[in-house]
Write a structure and sequence with these properties.
alpha+beta, OB fold (Dihydrolipoamide Acetyltransferase, E2P), 2 domains, 5-stranded mixed beta barrel, 7 strands
């Protein structure tokens, strides 16, 4: 082989390597994205099954059932309600009527949460929850919400 052919093979292998690395990087990034869904989206079947995602809304009134560190509660966007199961210590600000976001996945029609986040003060609601509630036309966006 000539020097030129060797260089072209090297350049082709380099381009293929960079392309392959980019493909694997994008694939890993896409697999680790956590999309947000409201209870209405989950009820309508828009949420993935077997894949982790975020579910947010308001904790349903009279829906919290505790059994040690196992907790069952409903999350609602005032249009639809979805059942959540969580095992662990809940945030101090967790209560009925509270805006929350949970991370987890669907298992047999129940959302099994691995993390529960509650708002941090009176004027703040996570933007995703405020948007979901607004779309459900149940409440107006809270005072602390900025677009």
């Amino acid at each position: 082989m000539t020097k030129r052919q060797n260089r072209m093979i090297l350049v082709a292998m380099l381009v293929a390597g960079v392309g392959l690395a980019g493909y694997f990087g994008l694939k890993a990034f896409n697999e680790n994205l956590l999309y947000f869904f409201s209870p209405t989206d989950v009820v309508e079947g828009k949420a993935p099954t077997g894949k982790s995602f975020r579910l947010g809304g308001l904790v349903g009134v009279d829906s919290v059932k505790r059994d040690g560190i196992k907790v069952r509660f409903d999350v609602t966007d005032n249009k639809n309600t979805f059942s959540v199961k969580y095992e662990g210590i809940l945030p101090d600000l967790f209560r009925e009527g509270q805006g929350i976001i949970t991370t987890g996945s669907l298992v047999n029609g129940t959302f099994v949460a691995t993390e529960v986040l509650a708002k941090h003060d009176e004027n703040y609601m996570p933007p995703e929850v405020a948007d979901a509630l607004s779309k459900a036309q149940a409440i107006k966006k809270p005072a602390g919400y900025n677009e």
